[in-house]
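lol forgot to send this yesterday, sorry. struct tokens for the thing we talked abt
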């Protein structure tokens, strides 16, 4: 994996990382915070929680900058709901680069701070870390394509890997079947990609899928659900 990474500013005032070898940013240049809130918080977490009570188990494919985890922490505090958050990342950012990231001012009025963000990055890998009473975090350094996941466990999946053009193997039927098996019925998975191969792979794995309006700069996104058999 490329080590040539640099911080770039996005349109909403938040930062992201640009990988010079893959020639791809970790988040949309039209707004890192805006994109993540749209794709993962609104389309997945809000949607799932509107129909289910209790603790929510989240799996994230691609810890990356830590933004999605930060937004999930903010959501847990604001909604007063408990979240168990597992995130898988094979190539974590180095500490010096992560310290240069900032998601403020876009998150200025939300219930998280730069100290919370640093705590997520400083949390030990391969351990369950209680970030606060509403949010536990487990960071797993692995390739999600080769993982053995618990059956019928996750309620929400944030699928935020690099694009299919860059990491085709992570968007395969096999990976989506593994995720499907690990998810409970009525669980949801969201992703920014609506590529035809992605839609076909999700359907072949057993998911019901729908296209949703995307954030700025992105026409559509995908939401997949593990529905009860008819």
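and heres what i got for the seq, position by position
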């Amino acid at each position: 994996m490329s080590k040539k990474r640099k911080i770039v500013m996005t349109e909403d005032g938040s930062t992201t990382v640009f990988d010079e070898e893959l020639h791809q940013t970790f988040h949309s240049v039209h707004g890192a915070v805006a994109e993540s809130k749209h794709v993962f918080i609104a389309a997945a977490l809000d949607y799932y929680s509107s129909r289910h009570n209790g603790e929510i188990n989240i799996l994230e494919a691609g810890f990356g900058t830590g933004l999605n985890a930060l937004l999930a922490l903010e959501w847990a505090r604001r909604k007063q709901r408990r979240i168990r958050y597992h995130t898988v990342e094979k190539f974590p950012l180095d500490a010096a680069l992560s310290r240069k990231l900032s998601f403020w001012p876009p998150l200025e009025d939300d219930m998280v701070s730069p100290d919370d963000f640093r705590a997520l990055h400083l949390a030990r890998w391969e351990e369950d870390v209680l970030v606060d009473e509403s949010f536990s975090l487990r960071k797993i350094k692995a390739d999600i394509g080769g993982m053995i996941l618990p059956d019928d466990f996750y309620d929400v999946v944030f699928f935020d890997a690099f694009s299919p053009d860059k990491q085709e193997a992570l968007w395969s039927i096999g990976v989506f079947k593994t995720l499907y098996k690990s998810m409970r019925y009525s669980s949801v998975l969201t992703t920014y990609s609506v590529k035809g191969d992605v839609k076909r792979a999700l359907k072949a794995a057993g998911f019901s899928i729908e296209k949703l309006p995307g954030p700025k700069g992105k026409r559509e996104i995908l939401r997949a659900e593990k529905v009860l058999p008819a």
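The chain has six helices and eleven strands. anyway ping me if u want another try
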